[in-house]
Amino acid sequence: MKYDGEKTQTIIGDNVTIRESVTINRGTVAFGKTLVGNNVLLMTGTHIAHDCIVGNNVVMANLATLGGHVEIGDWANIGGGVMVHQFVKVGTQSLIGGGFTAKQDVPPYIIVSGAPLRFVGINKIGLERRGFGKETREIIKQAYRKYFVSKFNRGQAIDYIKRSLPQIEEIKNIVEFIDSSERGII
Predict the structure, then answer these.
(1) Could you say which of 68, 73, 79, 126 is catalytic?
(2) Is residue 159 classed as helix, strand or coil in its secondary structure?
(3) Which residues of the chain fall short of a pLDDT of 70?
(4) Quick check: helix, strand or coil at residue 52?
(5) Quick one: which of 28, 30, 96 has its CA closest to 58?
(6) Residue 144: its pLDDT value, please?
(7) For a Cys staple, 108 with which of 92, 96, 112, 115, CB 3.0–4.6 Å?
């Protein structure tokens, strides 16, 4: 609906596997391009709409669908049949369980599932596979337990994370992701 014949692009990185019946739409005047990073696996029937940015090492399982302007961080895993609403951001190293819908942003390093989508835990196995040490994983877990599970409201929780947890790169990434969210956090 947005595309009006303007010159736009679809840019696909190196070592991308595109299986049967995958669709990738070109960008529109809004962003001018759709980007798919390196080492991405797009399984059968996946769809990437216009103006999306898909990071490196992303896996989209069968029939996963991205609306327009979606951003997927590096190493994210989008389960089979997942629908991601337009303008949603999915953080690095996160995993969305199969068959669910993401209508709001999914922060980095976590697993989410359910309807409505909810925090299940940190992506421990994915983080271990990529060399995140036990101490780093524990700090990430503490941050998300405070944000999603504690009796703090989300504003109080993010203040606590900023003040009380070690400000390692991953915590800074979490805070920046949450603070910059435009659609809200799941």
Answers:
(1) 68
(2) helix
(3) none
(4) coil
(5) 96
(6) 98
(7) 92
Reference 183, options 93, 46, 99, 70; nearest CA is 70
Q: Is 179 a catalytic residue?
A: no
Beta strands in 63-114 (DSSP E): 65-66, 71-72, 77-78, 83-84, 89-90, 95-96, 101-102, 110-113
Here the contacts of 15-23 (C-beta below 8 Å, separation 24 or greater) are 15/39, 16/40, 16/41, 16/42, 17/41, 17/42, 18/42, 19/43, 19/44, 19/46, 20/44, 20/45, 21/45, 22/46, 22/47, 22/48, 23/47, 23/48
- Asked if 89 and 69 touch (Cβ cutoff 8 Å), the reply is no
Is 50 an active-site residue? yes
CATH for 9-87 is 2.160.10.10
Annotation marks residue 68 as catalytic: yes
- Give me the catalytic one of 27, 50, 91, 105: 50
Domain residue spans of the chain: 9-87, 125-180
* Topology (CATH) of 125-180: Udp N-acetylglucosamine O-acyltransferase; Domain 2 (1.20.1180)
